[in-house]
Amino acid sequence: MLSDQNKMTIQASLQQGVAEITLVLFHPMENGDRLDASDQRVAAHFIQWVQFSHNGQQVLEAQWGTGIASDPELVFYVANAKAGDTVSVEWHDNKGYSGHHAMTLS
Predict the structure, then answer these.
(1) Are the C-beta atoms of 59 and 102 separated by less than 8 Å?
(2) Residue of higher predicted confidence among 6 and 11
(3) Does the CA dihedral 61-65-67-71 come out positive or negative?
(4) N or C: which end of the chain has fewer CB within 10 A?
């Protein structure tokens, strides 16, 4: 299954009221087309939905599918950010797994 289930890294840098957020989700992102060593199809397993919030307000929502690479990295920007603000991410995949993480900007 997922050895790194629910693991992610989130980093932020803050400059002149804009936070640059870098997120890496550790997930296999299997598209369902790959064959394993014994020529058996590897079942699809991918993140379907990701949501980002800034101080509890949604700032980005993404609906992903099988075209996203394993361990996806996403960089986005949040305006009107300051030290002490909270940014958070939540995700769900097609097999019912999910993850959540929050951090305080500094």
Answers:
(1) no
(2) 11
(3) positive
(4) N
